[in-house]
TrEMBL record:
MF terms in GO: ABC-type ferric iron transporter activity; ATP binding; ATP hydrolysis activity
InterPro entries: AAA+_ATPase, ABC_transporter-like_ATP-bd, ABC_transpr_FbpC, ABC_transpr_MalK/UgpC-like, Mo/tungstate-bd_C_term_dom, NA-bd_OB-fold, OB_MalK-like, P-loop_NTPase
SMART domains referenced in this protein's UniProt entry, alphabetically: AAA
Family indicated by similarity: Belongs to the ABC transporter superfamily.
Name of the protein this chain belongs to: Carbohydrate ABC transporter ATP-binding protein, CUT1 family
Residues spanning the signal sequence: none
Keywords noted in UniProt: ATP-binding, Cell membrane, Membrane, Nucleotide-binding, Transport
UniProt domain ABC transporter: residue ranges: 4-241
Domain of life: Bacteria
Pfam family, one: ABC_tran
GO cellular component term of the entry, any: ATP-binding cassette (ABC) transporter complex, substrate-binding subunit-containing
Length: 360
């Protein structure tokens, strides 16, 4: 296990980058705490795999350093970093049995035969392949082969870090849940530093201690699932985390009052906001009402998703989502929305700001 330090790290695939937009990975400084589980989350092309490949040694960054427990490994090859990496598509030895595939990393390190057998048996149980241990990998399904790849990554207990690059893409939905649970248990039992790349927020939020949200080559927030939900640091985080995502309202902000269209909204503090200013409100904090108080809104449709209802509204020509309890009566004359106390985030040029005098 290792503390991983990213020092002034950035990368461009261009030979002579001149400006920030030339970088696929914008400048980043961060410590990945020894023994924690991280998820790199973002849409395709945001820089997740670039960052993972720099940590693993498959890519040398354009600038900055990577340190494992304070040792500079920026130019060290992957083999010298003592890591295990599982890729999006399975990498297995078809001519070997499942048992031989799982044992391969341990045999290379000349581990005791009895210990190899113990670890292989344990990991086979984790990935539900005990009955197939003596089957050749050739002919197995893609998801079975990916389970072997996952198992081979998990079989070593002495690695500095376990890196996963969208490893569940080819796994069926039920097995995804099982393997995520097993990865969580492995992390709990052995305390490996784990970094897991995904575009799936459910995978990220159920797997990680801390989620690293990336957008346009930049890390826009690192936090617990609760922090990302309650206090999105960037409008992208609010949009990407949650289903439905956070609503955004263009607003003029004057101290502790925001103006949305012709309606006024009382804020929980005084803000000094310039540039493009918006209010971010999760659907769970939208309240439906009728009368003259609040922001004018028109219900367009109601979607019953079982445990709650999603109400789609038109507010000033823009679709807004609200979440209502399954048994909640939605009045036919609903024509306004208000916001629950504490449910408003204020943004200036897409970044969350705090009231004057308040801690971030």
């Amino acid at each position: 296990m290792a503390k991983i330090t990213l020092d002034n790290l950035a990368h461009s695939y261009l030979p002579n980058p001149q400006q920030e937009s030339d970088f696929a990975l914008k400048e980043l400084n961060h410590d990945w705490v020894d023994g924690e589980a991280y998820a790199l989350l973002g849409s395709s092309g945001c820089g997740k795999s670039t960052l993972l490949n720099i940590i693993s040694g498959l890519l040398i960054p354009s600038q900055g350093r990577v340190l494992f427990d304070g040792k500079d490994v920026t130019t060290a090859p992957t083999a010298d970093r003592n890591i295990a990496q599982v890729f999006q598509f399975p990498v297995v030895y078809d001519t070997m049995s499942v048992r031989e595939n799982l044992a391969f990393p341990l045999k290379n390190r000349k581990m005791d035969t009895a210990e190899i057998k113990r670890r292989v048996q344990k990991v086979a149980a984790m990935i539900d392949m005990e009955a197939q241990l003596d089957h050749k990998a050739r002919g197995l399904t893609a998801d079975a082969k990916q389970k072997i790849s996952l198992g081979r990554g998990m079989v070593r207990e002495d690695v500095n870090a376990l890196l996963f690059d969208e490893p569940l893409t080819v796994i069926d939905p039920h097995m995804k849940w099982e393997l995520r649970t097993q990865l969580k248990k492995l992390h709990h039992d052995f305390g490996h530093t784990m970094i897991y790349v995904t575009h799936d927020q459910t995978e990220a939020l159920t797997f990680a201690d801390k989620v690293v949200v990336m957008y346009d080559g930049r890390v826009v927030q690192i936090g617990t699932p609760q922090e990302l939900f309650e206090r999105p640091a960037h409008t992208f985080v609010g949009y990407f985390i949650g289903s439905p995502g956070m609503n955004l309202f263009d607003a003029q902000i004057d101290g502790n009052v925001a103006r949305v269209g012709d309606a006024t909204v009382q804020l929980d503090g005084s803000y000094a906001a310039t540039g493009k200013t918006q209010l971010g409100v999760r659907p769970e904090f939208i309240r439906l009402s009728s009368g003259s108080d609040g922001i004018p809104a028109t219900i367009r449709r109601i979607e019953d998703v079982g445990r709650h209802k999603i109400v789609r509204l038109d507010v000033g020509g823009k679709e807004i989502s609200a979440v209502a309890a399954e048994g909640e009566n939605i009045a036919a004359d609903t024509n306004r929305i208000t916001f629950a106390p504490g449910g408003i985030n204020v943004y200036a040029d897409d970044w969350r700001i705090t009231p004057q005098g308040a801690a971030a």
